[in-house]
Amino acid sequence: MLVDPLASRLVKFTANRTNITPNQLTVGALILGLGAGGCFAVGTWPMLLVGALLYHLSFTLDCMDGKIARLKGTGSIFGAWLDYIFDRVRVLACAIALMGGAYARTGNVAYVWTAVAVVFLDMLRYMDALEIYKVRSQMRNKLRDLGEQAAALEAAARAARGEVPAASVDAELSSAERALGNDPEADMEDRVVGDNPNVALQAEFNKKFPWYARVRDALLRGRIRPHLISGIEFQMGVFIVAPIVAAIIPGAIIPVTVLSGIGMMAFELVIIYKFWLSSRTYTKSLGKLERRVEEARAQVPQEELERLSLA
Q1: φ, ψ dihedrals at 196, nearest 5°
Q2: Of 45, 83, 120, 171, whose CB neighbour count within 10 A is largest?
Q3: How high is the pLDDT of residue 167?
Q4: What domain of life does the native source organism fall in (predicted)?
Q5: DSSP string of 67-92, one letter each residue
Q6: In this predicted structure, what is the pLDDT of residue 88?
Q7: Burial of residue 270 (number of CB atoms within 10 Å: 0-12, 13-18, 19+)
Q8: pTM for the whole thing?
Q9: Can you give the pLDDT at residue 151?
């Protein structure tokens, strides 16, 4: 409600009427973020408000770069790396500035530890998202490769028995791939759009929590992510909401930051729990496919195995 509607409108103008590149927007987002940090370091109530505004604008540019890259087909691996690194630099700089400025004014060492916690939680969220994405990709590839191997061996076994191969859907592989279909809510921050309740990956989770699908669908109809407090919302809580509240109520930075951190970790634990359930589905599917491969291999003559390079 606060970032994407504005960013989407600016993307239309920027893409059609300017030659601004996604990487330039990424750099601009960092510059605005560092400007916000400078305001936070001063720490007076007007500067806290200006810093919150600059951070919001920084977020808006950060939201635009990926949209324009996808819209114009100008995305690159380097651009994705730059966006990720600059985001972390922005968080580090603003955490040091906001909490360090408050510590300089009050001498309260709790601000120092709060800065450490903010940087740690931000890194934890994005490292966890990237690792889950990588592991799920490996799991999908493993199942796909094993399924293809099983299908090839079974076809060879039927041929060896003189049977006419029947056109059929590989049900086990299809089920396994559905079980590891995209779960944007867990895979990557910029793909958090909610998961399909019919995807087998969510079957066990939805069975345990049948109300979840209804709540999720209601949120999605309002363009609200089921993962209500992720890395983006956590940063907004710390660097936008907290400075605004602190400009009105001195000393509010730590309580607002703590609440933001608790909210993010609560939703991260849900993602980890869902990933654990999907890993159990993966293990079961993998075991079935491995047994199929061994059973089919035993029925295929050695020379045919060598021809298929599956010996």
Answers
A1: -75, 125
A2: 83
A3: 42
A4: Bacteria
A5: HHHHHHT---HHHHHHHHHHHHHHHH
A6: 93
A7: middle
A8: 0.78
A9: 84
DSSP state letters, 189-251: GGG-S---TTSGGGHHHHHH-THHHHHHHHHHHTT--SS-S-HHHHHHIIIIIHHHHHHHSTT
**Token pair listed for 110:** 């709790």
Question: What is the tens place of the pLDDT at every residue in 194-225?
Answer: 344 335 556 677 778 888 878 888 888 877 77
**Which amino acid would we find at residue 189?**
E
Q: Give the integer Cα–Cα distance in Å for 67 and 94.
A: 25
Q: How far apart are CA 308 and CA 202, in angstroms?
A: 36
**Which residue ranges in the chain fall short of pLDDT 70?**
164-203, 308-311
* Residues counted in the chain: 311
Amino acid, res. 290: E
pLDDT score of 153: 83
44 SS3 class: coil
Q: How far is CA 238 from CA 20, 61, 97, 191, in A?
A: 30, 18, 12, 22
